[in-house]
Amino acid sequence: MIFTDMDERPRQTGPHRKAPCPRTRHRSNMMLNPLNLSHLNRIDEPLADAVTLNLEDAVAPARKREALENILHFLSWCPVSPNRIVVRVNPLDQGGAEEIQRLSRSGVDAVRLAKVRTRKEIEQALALLPRSIELDLSIETAEAFRDLARWRGIDRRLRMAHLGILDLLADLNLPQHLLLPGNPMIDHLLSTFVIAARTAGMVPVGFMFQDYRDTATYRVWLERMRRIGFDAAACMGPRQVAIADAVFDMDKYAIDRARHIVEAFEKNSLKNINGFMDDRYGFIDEPIYRDALNILKNMEKTI
After folding, report:
1. How many other C-beta atoms lie within 10 A of the C-beta of residue 247?
2. Is the pTM for the entire model greater than 0.85?
3. Cβ neighbours of residue 195 under 8 Å, at least 6 residues apart?
4. Which positions ≥6 away from 174 have C-beta within 8 Å?
5. C-alpha angle 34-36-37 in degrees, rounded to nearest 5
6. Cα separation of 165 and 168, whole Å?
7. What's the CA gap between 100 and 88, in Å, rounded?
8. Contact assessment for residue 18 and residue 43, using Cβ atoms and an 8 Å cutoff
9. CA distance 111 to 138
10. Angle at the Cα of 244 (from 241 to 245), degrees rounded to 5?
11. Which of 104, 100, 70, 76 lies closest to 18, judged by CA?
């Protein structure tokens, strides 16, 4: 906890600018409401790989400034956090530009821009941020879904693409009752998003499942998303975090297999042999070697 006694917490700004989070692994993204002070008081505790403080649709317009001031105040008393701290801001023309300017001195790890529609909005947001703060994108509009793959190379600070499935369905004029595991249209939408995000050089993050009590269906969705190619998903509460961390974690078999393939390929490549039969895993060539390298690279991000 940041403050042991919330009633006696100081009202003045604290002395800290939160240090950058060293965590690079991203499996769980826990959403918190910054109007809930007890939530903010725990951002220095291990909660999830990432914690997103939501200034957009979770906060009524009349209370957005209050929510922003809460975030800035608690961050000023939080020197370090084991979570990647992200603030989801409003669209630039709806207060987001001012929110980004205020947050640029707070030590947040990333700002997440809501309702993105154009490349120009992304460039404007990046111009408001120091080089030390990353920019995540909420893909919730038809324009962003269409253009995501074309945004490759805009800036290295673009790291995470978050799928806002309910807003996207509404923008596409599709009813929410289509959102069922196994619906081929939804699978196509999820697959297209993953390919576009990876083409843009960003990590695809799965959508929020609203019924936090239905952990069985949440696990079904996450297992499906992992098979499609997602690395992470949004979470509502600690029970969903535990499921996301388990589903998207690396299994020991995959790691051991990758290590063996890398060792065997590099040993054979010294003899100018880039394709060979392996006693344990059959035929190994360069594409299989590159896949093994990616697995080990991702494993290193678990720290």
Report:
1. 21
2. yes
3. 149, 229
4. 185
5. 95
6. 5
7. 10
8. no
9. 10
10. 85
11. 76
For the chain, which residues make up each domain, given as ranges?
Answer: 6-247, 252-302
Token couple for 210: 């609203």
Class of the CATH domain delimited by 6-247: alpha beta
Give residue 247's identity as a one-letter amino acid code.
Answer: V
SS3 287: helix
CA distances from 261 to 77, 227, 264, 266, 284 (A): 47, 22, 5, 8, 7
Closest CA to 254 of 219, 282, 296: 296
CA dihedral angle for residue 270, residue 276, residue 277, residue 280, rounded to 10 degrees: 40
Residue 115 in tokens: 């309702």
Question: What's the N-to-C CA distance of the chain in angstroms?
Answer: 22
| C-alpha separations of 206 from 46, 82, 109, 246, 288 in Å | 21, 22, 20, 15, 26
**DSSP string computed for 176-214:** GGG--TT-HHHHHHHHHHHHHHHHTT-EEEEPP-S-TT-
Query: 81-96: b or e for each residue (b if 16 or more CB lie within 10 Å)?
Result: bebbbbbbbbbbeebb
Give the pLDDT confidence of 11-63 residue by residue, as tens digits. Answer: 999 998 999 998 777 899 999 999 999 999 999 999 999 999 999 988 999 99
Instruction: Check the CA dihedral 70-72-77-78 and report its sign.
Output: positive
- What is the band of 223 on the pLDDT scale with cuts at 50, 70, 90? very high
